[in-house]
Fold each of these.
Amino acid sequence: MYKAIIVDDEDLVRQGLKKHFDWSAHDIEIVADHSDGQKAFQFVKDNHIDLVLTDVLMPYMDGITLAKNLRELYPDIKIIFISGHDDVIYLKKALKVEAVDYILKSIDLDELDETVSRVVNIMNSEKQSKKNLADMENLLNQSFPLLQERFFITMIRDDFENPVIMKERIAFLNIPLNDEMYYCVLVVQIQRVYSTFHVLSERERQLLSLRIQNECTEVGKQYSDTICFENKQGEYVMILSLSEDEYEETLLEVSENLNKRLKGGMELPVSIGISGRFKGLENIKTSYENASNAISKRYLLDDALAISVDKYEMDESLKEYKENAEKSLQECLSSGNTEQVSKVLEELFTVIRENFQHDEEQNLMIFLLLLPTRIVTDIKINKKSDYSNQRRILDRFLCCGDFEEQCILIQKLYFEVAALMSSMSKTYSHTIINQVRKTIEERFKEQISISTLAKDVYLTPTYLCVLFKQVTGTTINDYLTLTRLEKAKKLLSDPYIKLYDVCYEVGYLSPSYFSRLFKKYTGISPSEYRNIAIASSEQ
């Protein structure tokens, strides 16, 4: 109930208001009455009060002065003046102290009832607003970890925004980053992501990911202030603060302990990339990219040598060349086309020989040497293959006398993988397509693209489209649409789910587009389908 007091120098008025008006009907309790403003002011200072009904003219402290004093200390208190004076001067003074109403004596109980009802409505509205604000504050506090993680991901993926806005957001989210400290970025990538995560249920995946993130955080905090977050499945990013000197050994210890914890304690082989030391928040994105590149351009990819340090910036042309080479080779290897493999390799060897210095040349050659490992691992080939022992391949490569011998070795190994793929092309194609189907089934609510699906199976988007149509007889987009519409039909059978909620639940952002698409594929609108489904269930 709301707490109220009555202040009037006439005892008859005070007692009459208490006895002859039903305060409880308005959820109000009269907790005290006073004969002057001074006593009332002291009472309010000692007790919580929501509403004050006060006379204007009183001894010691009049009603106007009482209202001013209350407004200064307790701005939420509501004040109703009750006075026998209808002088305009008093009315103006009452308005100046923001009294919610002004009632003249003798008091009309109907007028008082109307006035109190209006004041209670105001207090209820303000009370609800405060509750809503408190709920929003509570929700915001609960969402802080999610907001922080989103901000971290933005920092490494997007270009550096306005420095003032960036610092304001960092301060608001209570993130321990600034422009004065030195930092380093570590990228921790789980090897064999698909076989590690996709055999688990969603709950198990989330728990495993959380455990990995906690392990990374615990290791980092043993050495310095550490921020750790998951950038994507199987990749965790750490930002460590560094002292100005002798930080290299610290980073090596952090990386070795991470490798020990994850590989030894959790049986998760990892690759760890380390950026150079940097200062300035605008350099976080570049440092993340350098740490990621350090993994992709390391010389030895053996599990025992999982730590890679970014020692130099990769030339953009080299980076682009490696990406293009990977797409071409993955495609012709997957198809088992040895003639195409030979042609692509010859072109690559010529370009590498003529355009790159020795270090970059060897970097690219080892990159080519180990590229088929991903295919052999992901499709779980049971036949005996040289790629079943990565260390042996590296040993054979290191025993080559010159660049030409390296070319011959790589070509021989590629022919072996291509022949293997050719012998089992049908099985491999179905493995790839089944993986794509599974991804669509699990992620149909998301805005997934063909490029995303192709990247997951290490193929070009064009090749995946051709392969999918060849195996299934339908396009990827049609398959995704049909999957979504089948899910929509199940939801439409429930009359309590709104049509626009069905639209959002199956991955469409526009209800009108969803309705048009549904009618195009089914011949009827979603609402018509719902009526038919409900009628069928009632029979």
Amino acid sequence: MKKEIAQVLLLLVLFMFQGNSSVANDSVKFALIEADKKTSTFSFIDSYLNFSSSSPKDFIWNKADAPVAVLDDAQVVSEFTEEYIGYDPLNRDRLEIRLYAAKIIPERVALGVGYGRLLASKWGALNFGEFTHDHDFGEVLGGDNSSGVMLVNRISVMRRGQHILIIRSRFDADYFDQYKDAIATFVGSIEFAKVVQKDPIVASLETAYLFEKDPEYKFKYHMPSNWKRAVSMEVRRKEAEFDFWLDVGDNLGNSAALAFVIPSSDKRVKAGKFTVDPDRAANIAREYAKSLISNVSSNRPFHFTGIERAVLPRFEQITSYNELFNFSGNLELEDEKGSLPYLVSVMVTLGEKGTLNTTAVMTTEHSNDYRFGTKNHVEFTHQLMMDAQEHFWKVRASQPH
């Protein structure tokens, strides 16, 4: 037992604190090395997943064609197959790479890292970090030492249309230095045979507007088609416009979203740039969170248990203020049946003249696989909304003042 604890602590030091910063750490864990020579080619039922890459030295590849059930309860994929198993016959216990293909359920679509996060929870009890290359390509590092040997999974997920490619590189932690470059080269050298001409997920997004007819404050954003407005647009006023959305694809009915724009006002802007009191900003974000919870929960009692906040670099040069607030809390269930843990994310952005553009989403914490999948989909939805916020401010930053 002491040996196992020491091994876990050693891995935490290796993966969590290597280097002088989290960036340096991630550059080792999730390195991508591109090789000019592609030594192996792989074919799948969906031809958009066909690719070639540089295989690790002495690897052989066997076709598997085995159905996989680990995501059945999450209800995020309709098909999931293990396609290939690759290894060096003399050192299979040190490194093995498995390739999977899955067809996603569109109304449960997630970021690439979201699928990786869910798979990591099924393939190991330990999480050593994650990295988002872009919305469709993400990686998670997880581990498991239940056998007495620390086996680590580098799970790489790439979404291409309605299908995802999953690369599970499993290695003995004692041989990390020996194999890290081989894994980085295999993942980093992937070259797909076909270009996705039209992404059906993107094509299905619904376009929404706030202040659609006012060029100064017009906010254009996109929502997945399974999200429906819960408040009529007729309630909008010139002082502020908002949209309240519900995810009708969530069978449990726990997911909601909010978009809100308040134009600048002479009363709120006296001179120069609009300044923000961080404490007041947190209170404002908390009110947005309360509004979401109250509308979804039929005014059942709730209380906050924690808050995390972070300034996002992508907004720093185009806004006067930005901060992402992540609230956690508990919502009391009906008939005194306990409480439900929930999460609310609020992205507050403010322009130099006082215009406020805010988006927020709410869902429950992942107490089971289905809720895990729901949380990942809500995260995807909020990323779409934050992309729109970024575009909103970039347009205004490029205009003459």
Amino acid sequence: MKIALALAYVFLPPVITRLFYPESVFITGMHTHISELGIFSLMIYLIVKKRTPDLKSARLLALAFLLVFFADFIYTYKFNFALDIPLAVSRFSSLCYSGFMITLSVYLFSSFRRFLKDKVSLALCSLSFAVFAYLNFEYILSAIYSRNVGSSFSHYLNSAQYFYYANTTVYAFFLTVNISLLIPLVIRTRRFFENFFCAALLLVPISDFAIRFEEITRAKSSAPTPFGHGWEIGIVSVFMLLLYKKKTPEFTKDTVVSYFSIRVILVALILVFSTLLIAALFRLDIVVIRDAFTLSNTLFVLYLIIFLSNLISIRISSHVMALGDHLENIHKAKSAGAELTPEARLEILDRTANIYEVDNILERYNDLTNHANKLQGMAIRNSRLAAIGQTTQMVAHDVRKPFALIKHVLSAFEELRSDPAGLETAKKDIQGALSHVEAMIEDMMDFSREVKLLTRPESLSELVHETVAALKPGAGGADIRFHYDFRGPDLALIDRQRLKRAISNIVGNAVEAITVTGGKDSGNIYFRTADKGGRVELRIGNDGPGLPEEDLPRIFDSFFTKDKQGGTGLGLASARKIMELHGGTISAVNRAGGGVEFLLRLPASSGKEAPAEARPA
């Protein structure tokens, strides 16, 4: 509905004028004046409300269309009433027209400047400038200058004539600049808004060839030619586009495509072919350009060719680029860490371009997408089955030994009844085995389920002592010595049981590294705390063998069990998850004297916080 109303506003007044009032410029003038004031008012609104990303562009457009409003208003008044106007007013109108073209040139140059650095743009702008400068001189300026051929030199020094010639030359120069800047923009903009905006602006100077020639040759009482409607439609179209979008066009890398693209090459081929055809017709005297009127007719034909070829090329290009845009969105989502379902990773593009080649590409893309989704689903299922199989194998391996120990103790139970010391040892062995199995189950459950923490202020030194006391019986008879260096306040906001589990996993790994990997009967584990202002650090080191540097970043990965005889590979992964839930971090480095040191950083506590439930992960 909005588009229909906009089209009616753009084209209905010119049609009514040509059908019913061909000798009047009143309707055309009012239509143009309202649109020019509308553009000015809209730009002021966007500037005041700061609703446009480019305030400089909005200011330049506001100034340009305010100037052309003054100029067109005087022009309409002059020709509608066939009156002589004061010289000062006439000069003011001429200056406003020149000011409009100059301001428009500044706006276009500032918008297109970043794209003028390549040789193709410079060559195209230079060629366009040279062609239209020649046409301006050949069909407009020469006609103006020739009217006074034979006049004395003093005639050209007359202030009124000097002003007229100088202003007309300046106007023609910047009109040519505008055309040379608009042509590359028209063929390179990929979005309809920017493209239609540039096309509407391009219609204004193209129409002006005939309008200026008409002004030279037409008598006051003669009827105006229809070329003025090109100027009218161009300005009114700009107003409708800006009103619809309520922003200025954006000329960026996302909206201006490369010359070496389907969108540009297609338009360029059509334009070159059409130009060569017209040139051939001109050469064969089938088309004869006698004056600016026939020149404008030829330019209008080329303009329509450019406009229609742009519609086709943008439509084709948009469907082709939709594939790239879609894949880019998926990449951005992955980079942001978003979880994508298998179905969302590669989306079927449910659209057609009604163009055989493009639809063929879309169809093939959808076929590949369907196949990729199936393969992806199979890969996810296989990876899950592999993870389940790997975990089951590890659990079976580790659980078999504790149960074998329990079975052995039960089989020798009658003998142990008469040996209290042996019975006590067997009891401790069974408790250790069961604790080991329980720890494995806790690791797996902590890693796989949603965990909610209940945090409260706790002393890390007390928690470390409590954890070590629980782990000493499971040291397997090895002489593990624990060293403590607790400095400063060590209150942290933690979930006591969960953090105890994380520390237990780290210490358990340290004991295994010393006794199993290192093959030693004794070793040392060090604990040290420090207050770092808002954070509490807990360092846990050992004097076992170190780790290869390439393995250090991987030890917190799931199922990583380098040089371990069993274990689920989830202990340190679970510890990292617990630390992240606390808003903390965990890292590991090799110690200079041998062994590995873990660094845990946790939020410090003032001791006054109430218990709180942390967000689940």
